[in-house]
Amino acid sequence: MVHRVRSGRWPYHPFGAALLPHVTTTTATTSDPSTPPALTGSGATPFVSVDLTAVGSAYRTLRRALPGVALHYAVKANPARPVLEVLARHGASWDVASPGEIDAVLEVDPRPERLSYGNTVKKAADIAHAHARGVQQFALDSDAELDKLVALAPGATLLVRLATSGAGADWALGHKFGCPEVQAARLLARAVAHGHPVGVCFHVGSQQHDPHAWDEPLAAAGRLRNALRAMGADLDVVDLGGGFPALGTVDPVPVAQRFGEGIRASLRRHLGDDLPALMAEPGRFLVADAGFLETEVVLVTERAGVRWVYVDAGLFSGLAETMGEAIRYRITAHRGRASLTGAVAPVVVAGPTCDSLDVLYRRHRPALPVSLRPGDRLRFRAAGAYTTTCSSVGFNGFRPLREQFR
What we know:
By secondary structure, the chain is of the alpha/beta class. The chain has two domains: about 1-50 and about 290-405, Lyase, Ornithine Decarboxylase, Chain A, domain 1; about 50-285, Alanine racemase (TIM Barrel). Helix content is about 25%, strand content about 25%.
């Protein structure tokens, strides 16, 4: 097993580090996938370890579940160059949200027509940068954003983002992004009047559990399409967004094929057989299950009769999605090269910083071995997404989260 470890200058910004073109390489002494990589020459905790073969496998799985749908990888999930290179080899397209992501993608896939700028809140300078680099598809959900795009991205395909309820998702997104259907109809008509090809996009919420969550926004897309056709136009593209869940969290979710079946049924119901171009924006599904976050137990103690376990990664060092206990990672315990077994009991899990917010799980307490002690390892599963990119630059003096590839 070969581990490629991101170059480790400190302090650095985690997103910037994700874009570094080089990694150092160390060779482990075992091929046993159950052996914690930190114990085979990969360095101290905390770190994220990503299996690049599993990233490619997840891409192929989703392609089978969504035939005819162009998969635009949501780069924000994990923008590390090795991840981008694997997905480029598999033929992925790209969902980008900033000039930094655009530039990173174009270094590994120099075809800007495969990029979709999915962020609905963009600086004028960033729109101009994207258009100058050849990006021809942009999302919006407001008149002000449409005005900027008409002025700075002439002829580009404009996707109007619909608001969704986020019902069934662990991490809803509709409160910040998207617009009501009535407003979407007006924005589409305005974009068409300015000579732009148009489409509809939406996001049903991250880590979605309901395979039928796409039905309501696709029904709205069908009504919007009818309104456009009545004025002599049409939807060029429907963007199904993301939401496809990781399988390795605590709460079980349906497999990808179930989501594909639900989406295809909704497409037939609301858009018929004459479909516009279809795309989706998977992020978590492609990289989360490929990675885990390895931590070391720092302290085990009792507070007011409740057992607390403190580890060396927390809310500010890669586990931001535990905020509000939204994403419940499955956690396994290890000592040396062996998994810890025996009696377990519920614990509060907290991070290492001197900030009272840095508590990961207090309501939903994972059951961990009663024999757990400082120096043992806790492994957070399905952590290949939204961990390294959500790590601070060095809050409280703790090093940013490292990432390695195998």
